[in-house]
Amino acid sequence: MNSLLDNALRVAAIGAGATAIMDCWLLLLQRLGVPTLNFAMIGRWVGHWRSGVFAHDAIAAARPVRGELAIGWLVHYATGIAFATLLISVVGMAWTEAPTAAPALGIGLVTVLAPWLVMQPAMGAGIASARTKSPAQNRVRSLANHAIFGLGLYLAAFVIAHAITLFNTH
């Protein structure tokens, strides 16, 4: 493989790995009775784009979209890979060979702006969940989720870097 493809695969693996770590966190929260993301609603939101509808008063009340859960999961993982790409574009590809936690956590926290300023308003929740029953609690939950995602970026990069090193020495 060429280095461009190697780099793209490494960044995609870091993004998918970080997203999977975030999903484990969300599963834990769900098991503890804490409300978490419903990826079908993300799929419903994105599914309505085909008809030119980008914003809703309440996404749950919008017409369901065929395959919305699958679309939601696909968008979720694609977003995680895009955010990993953002991280690498900021810190450089060399970071993937010797990752450190601070840049990953920083990008993870910055990515909370996407749901706060784009997704939540477009899905009817208002800027940073302002139109929900408990906006402060939802904001803290979003920050925690994105901090976990940032930690996931670091952990995924760390594991991948060590796996590649191990593979190349044997």
UniProtKB/TrEMBL annotation:
<protein>
    <submittedName>
        <fullName>DUF2938 family protein</fullName>
    </submittedName>
</protein>
<dbReference type="Pfam" id="PF11158">
    <property type="entry name" value="DUF2938"/>
</dbReference>
<dbReference type="InterPro" id="IPR021329">
    <property type="entry name" value="DUF2938"/>
</dbReference>
<keyword id="KW-0472">Membrane</keyword>
<feature type="transmembrane region" description="Helical">
    <location>
        <begin position="73"/>
        <end position="95"/>
    </location>
</feature>
<feature type="transmembrane region" description="Helical">
    <location>
        <begin position="12"/>
        <end position="29"/>
    </location>
</feature>
<feature type="transmembrane region" description="Helical">
    <location>
        <begin position="143"/>
        <end position="167"/>
    </location>
</feature>
<keyword id="KW-0812">Transmembrane</keyword>
<keyword id="KW-1133">Transmembrane helix</keyword>
<feature type="transmembrane region" description="Helical">
    <location>
        <begin position="101"/>
        <end position="122"/>
    </location>
</feature>
